[in-house]
Amino acid sequence: MIIEDASLDLPRLSTIAHRLILRDGTHQDAAAPYLLEHSMEVYLNGCKTMALTCVPQFLTELILGRLLTEAIIQGTEDVQRLRISRDGKRADITLRNSHGQPEARILPPAFASLTPVKPIFWKPEWIFQLADRFADGMPLHAATWATHSCFLARNEEILFSCEDIGRHNAMDKAIGYALRNGIPLTDCMVYSSGRIPTDMAVKAIRAGIPVLVSKAAPTQEAISLASTYHLTLICSARRDSMRQYTGW
After folding, report:
1. Whose C-alpha in 167, 180, 215, 248 is 20 to 30 A from the C-alpha of 81?
2. pTM strictly above 0.90
3. Which CATH number applies to 124-244: 3.40.140.10, 3.40.50.880, 3.30.450.40, 3.40.440.10?
4. Nearest CA among 178, 167, 193, 165 for reference residue 64
C-alpha cells in the first residue's frame, strides 16, 4: 500500500469572540477556541464514494478505518494507493481487484460480513487505568468541550489516542491506526467516550476487536449484538466502577 499524506498539517482550532451572559443579568465580552470542521470527499477508483466531516487530524487513519468498518475492504492488502490532497479536501484511493466498481461495495446490509470475534484475556485494572487516563482529558476536548475521544490499547498499554467531532470518526481513526501500523486488532481493546448503539458495536465486530469499552451507555440492541458475536462489552467505565454486559 502506497500512502501519500506526508504534507498534511491542517489547523484544528480557531479563536472566536462571544458574549458571556451570566444568570444575574451581567455580561462580558470574551473569546474561546472552537473546532474547525473539515470536509473531505473520498473517491474510490475515481468514483466519489463518501463525504466526511471531521477534525483534520489522522485523515489517513480515518479513511482506512472507515473503509474497513463499512466492509469496503478487509485489510490494507485491498488498498493499492491512498493519496490525500495538500488541502486535505480530497482523498483518492485505488482498490485492488475492484474493476472500477467500488460503489457496489459501499452499503452492505447492516450485519453483512460479520463473524464472531475471538475473546481475549483482560483485567479490570487495565480498564480502570484507561478510565484514569480518560478522566485526565484530551487536548482538543480540554480546549473546546466539543470532541469525542478514543483509545486503542493492548493489555495495559495505550497504543494510540485520538479525537474527533463524532464518536464514529474517532473509533475509525483508532482502527485505521492499527491497520496502518500492522497492529493486530484481534489483540486490542478500544475505549470510546461515546454511546454504544448497534453501529458502534458493528464497527468493533467487523474490525475483529474483542473488547469494546465506553465511558457512556449502550443500547439494548447493542448488548444483544455483542452477545451474539462474542464481543466483550463494558460501558459506564469510570475510575471507580464499570458495567460488563457480555463476555463473561
Report:
1. 167
2. yes
3. 3.40.140.10
4. 178
